[in-house]
Amino acid sequence: MQREFRDAGSGPVKHVANRLLQALNQDVPQVERESRSTDMSETWEDHLRRTFRSMITARTLESKLASLYKAGKIVGGVYIGPGQEAVSASIGSCLTWNRDIFGALIRDQGGRTAFGEPILDATRSYLGSVKGPSKGRDGNIHRGHPAQGLPAMISHLGAMVSVVAGMLLARRLQGRLDGIVGAVSVGDGASSTGSFHEGINLAAVERLPLVVVLTNNQFAYSTPTDRQFRCRSLVDRAIGYGIPGYEVDGTDLLASLEVISKAVTEARQGGGPQLVVANLLRLSGHGEHDDASYVPDEIRNSALGRDCMEVAEHQLLQAGFVTEAELESWKNEAAEQVQAAVAQAQQEPSPDPYTDDWSVYASPELAEDC
User: Fold this and answer.
1) How is residue 153 annotated by DSSP?
2) Is the pLDDT of residue 91 over 50?
3) Strands annotated E in 18-156
4) Does residue 204 register a pLDDT over 90?
5) Bigger pLDDT: 314 or 366?
6) Distance between CA 88 and CA 215 in Å, rounded?
7) CATH assignment of the domain containing 114
8) Residue-range definition of the domain harbouring residue 340
9) What is the CA radius of gyration of the chain?
10) What is the largest CA-CA distance in the chain?
11) How many domains does the chain have?
12) Which residues 6+ apart lie within 8 Å of 257 measured at CB?
């Protein structure tokens, strides 16, 4: 399969496409490629393996959370991202915990895991443990570690673009922006909001090192893309902001990691905001309460409906980057980690309304001034 990547501001990105095609169109690539991760000693192969392991962990964790929800063990909603792990994990694996900024969305367990968030944060949040990031007050994905670069997610579509842009601007004003990148994950629905426009426009004007990864999963909840926008592709919107834009097959891990790595590198080196549009189909409903019966079989059976996990597994095996034995070991290790995290969260207490301090401040010392 031949792949095309376009820079909305300056025509085809031939050097990226050529590197990808060279790797993907040969049977068993043997060359060691330049690392695109933040660890300059890491080879491309190691970066790819690390990203795929995060995908495995995320899929395993979310499958368990979905089972717990159906068994009545989780109160509220469960939002998972099957089919989007390649894009999400690629974002997280290109960033560094405690230095960069990642604005995750509801289908970004893969990115959260690759970025460095402990899976225990997820199980504690969903199972209502008082030891979780939100102290058991929030039951799903509004969790984070702002001091380490993972702001707690805001549900309103597009809002995290402005949040991450603001965090980057704040670091510039503090003289702490050199070498930092902020990445934010959004969906096609978010691209129709004012927050999305305002955040990217601010980042473009200020030339902030912001990477916006827009996952076009074909439906904003149940609204298809042909009822959301008229442009040929969402990547064309980059032209209006005067920033580079890239389009990639989001079911393809090799392609997704290459393009997102390039965007992160460009932003980190002073190239300003970057827009990446990844095309795919989410392989589940909006949440576990949604059966996605509105998705036509024609789309499900198209190339967009490929499972990125299966594609990635085939790619790595064919390229000789992983063995069958290693894959089995990774899957077993992920299952053990998830089971241990679930068991620990289930053993921990829920919040007690009679003893809780009810502080809603991010900085507890502020409560003393009120």
Assistant:
1) P
2) yes
3) 101-103
4) yes
5) 314
6) 9
7) 3.40.50.970
8) 6-13+44-351
9) 20
10) 66
11) 1
12) 36, 47, 48, 51, 86, 90, 93, 94
Residue 358 inside a domain? The answer is no
Q: What angle do CA 234, 245, 100 make, to 5 degrees?
A: 110
Looking at residue 39, its pLDDT comes to 57
Long-range contacts of 35-44 (CB under 8 A, 24+ apart): 36/94, 36/257, 36/258, 36/261, 36/262, 36/264, 36/265, 37/93, 37/94, 37/261, 38/94, 38/95, 38/96, 38/99, 38/100
In this prediction, residue 23 carries a pLDDT of 43
Do residues 256 and 185 touch, judged by C-beta distance below 8 A?
A: no
Helix H, strand E, coil C: the string for 195-252 is: HHHHHHHHHHHHCCCEEEEEEECCEECCEEHHHCCCCCCHHHHHHHHCCCEEEEECCC
Instruction: Grade residue 32 by pLDDT with cuts at 50, 70 and 90.
Output: very low
Mean pLDDT of the residues in the chain: 86
- What's the start-to-end Cα distance of the chain, in Å? 62
Q: How many CB atoms lie within 10 A of CB 362?
A: 9
Calculate the alpha carbon distances from 59 to 92, 162, 224 in Å. Answer: 15, 29, 25
User: Which amino acid is it at 191?
Assistant: S
Q: 92 is written with which tokens?
A: 């997280």
CA distances from 368 to 141, 355, 361 (A): 29, 18, 10
d(CA 84, CA 105): 11
25 belongs to a structural domain: no
Q: What is the mean pLDDT of residues 254-283?
A: 96
31 in a structural domain: no
Q: Which residue has the higher pLDDT, 368 or 161?
A: 161
Is residue 329 included in any domain, yes or no? yes
Contacts of residue 310, Cβ cutoff 8 Å, sequence gap at least 6: none
Contact 108, 47 (CB under 8 A): no
Q: What values do phi and psi take at 67, rounded to 5?
A: -65, -40
Q: How far is CA 23 from the centre of its chain?
A: 24
Amino acid at 142: H
Q: Please, are residues 309 and 85 in contact by the beta-carbon 8 Å criterion?
A: yes
pLDDT bracket for residue 342 (50, 70, 90): very high
pTM, whole model, 2 decimals? Answer: 0.86
Question: What strands lie across the sheet with 274-279, from one edge to the other?
Answer: 101-103, 182-187, 210-216, 274-279, 245-249
